[in-house]
Amino acid sequence: MSVAPKRPKGPPLNAMRAFEAAARHVSFVAAAEELNVTPGAISQHVKALEGWAGTPLFRRNAQGVELTREGQLLIADFNEAFDRLADAARALRNLQPKAEFHIAALPAVAQLWLPKRLRRIRAQLPNINFSVTALETPPSLSRELFDLSIFFALPDGSPNQIVVCEDEITPVCAPTVLLRAQRPNGFQDVPLLHDQTWKGDWPKWLQSNGFHMRDENSGPQFSLYSLAVEEAKAGAGILMGHLCLIEDDIASGSLTAVNTQSCPTGLSLVIQLPRQSRRRPETDRVVSLLSS
Amino acid sequence: MSVAPKRPKGPPLNAMRAFEAAARHVSFVAAAEELNVTPGAISQHVKALEGWAGTPLFRRNAQGVELTREGQLLIADFNEAFDRLADAARALRNLQPKAEFHIAALPAVAQLWLPKRLRRIRAQLPNINFSVTALETPPSLSRELFDLSIFFALPDGSPNQIVVCEDEITPVCAPTVLLRAQRPNGFQDVPLLHDQTWKGDWPKWLQSNGFHMRDENSGPQFSLYSLAVEEAKAGAGILMGHLCLIEDDIASGSLTAVNTQSCPTGLSLVIQLPRQSRRRPETDRVVSLLSS
DNA sequence: TTTCTTGGCGTAGAAAAACTATGGCTAGTA
DNA sequence: TACTAGCCATAGTTTTTCTACGCCAAGAAA
What we know:
2 copies of one chain form a homodimer. Chain A contains 11 helices and 11 strands.
């Protein structure tokens, strides 16, 4: 008779977390990004968990993973559990006497929109330590420890969202380039500046205004919108300007609209909050200062 | 402006688990036992968590810990979260094709009561791998991965409990000792055998039968009841017998009751199951074989 | 008193886990 | 025929976690 000397060991917690993230994103890479590790680590964790369970949880295809039937069965439970755990962690963190306030934002927003407002807020709330994390995609506020996020998104009318402004685009350039740009063939002659994460901007604007262009994708590419803005200010070409991000540059005259036709992208700049019960007490204060 | 390069890191999962266990038991030692580590490890985890949170969660007194107000606030959340997680882990394990069936039992039960039945069960269910863990105190079935536990307890009428029999005690001894034991002063002359975890047995029985003894605690002590039973069978003295554990020895005549006065301890031998939805499919089968 | 027991702390070193870096593979895409 | 996106596997390193052990304080027992 085999008397096990030890209590049966549960699966490793970290492996479960990795599985949960991978299942939620249906991607090891995305999970790795969320957990701030390499995809290899996720792979190992998932494998460990599959080993523990004795059954595969993912089907690995060359172009991505998908959950097996077994995996499907589990994901709801794990989601729920880690949601609760995230709640608990948030509660834990919220009793920290010295407040840390975490903001997630699109890189462009973090660099162009936030700084001015954050300076003001810091002046008003000197006891809070703000930190800003630039992310390409909005994090899950119920899972990660951000106190608010600012991204371009489709408002869904939830009370946890505050719409700051509609996203509107129009071509802009430095005043020194304006005359050239406004000539009949301006868009052909002056380089168009592109942001890699907003590849669709030029086509969208051109189409919405009935223009056609041979080569709407030509011109320098920038990995950060703020770089493109700097180049535009330096006179390097015409940039598709997101009005809410460059309002100061327009006001100060370092950028001017090439013409008056602007076009809404359909998205809005949206401040997203965790649900009421999990917010830091300072949140409302910060939001009202941010959006004023 | 401080742009944090990384997403805010949540607290370490293992530290949270350690805290949860420590908070639930209000004891580092008990938590350590549950998690199969040394108390030092728990201490470190809790300290790490307190460091992360920036606030103490436990008040350490020389004779044990107690939760601070902050700790009190958190325990419910953490309990909930880890319950869910345990559920998920159980679900995960339950899809293992090759079944492992974990039983927790009091050492005495594991050694004296289980083996016979388990042999029968193994014969009936040859594909299941049974493992038995001997524990002094019943584990939480909603938290640990046991499929059932067998302990002496007060039945609470829940449908997750099956009462096997009432616990009844009466002095027993080897036939060779019987005559000496039954003499008027038998209990004085023949050594009384004691089990350390059931110190109260002799006093209880004596009292319930109106006897008084100068020295009811004298005699050899055993750390395991099964050792005491062996000694009794070898003629070393009179043992307070728990009838349901020694029925075979009585039936075979290797032990006999000194007199016929038995006394219920108020407890019963109880099979405890996890709640319905978390059970292994084989559970009902095992239970019916166990209690038949 | 003094001594023992219980339950906590702290630290050093050992053991285990987790992570990264790298190269390789496959299937869609250009 | 490349090229890209995603996943895998492995080796080696870094980090975490655990144990072992000595210490201390408070209450219980002698």
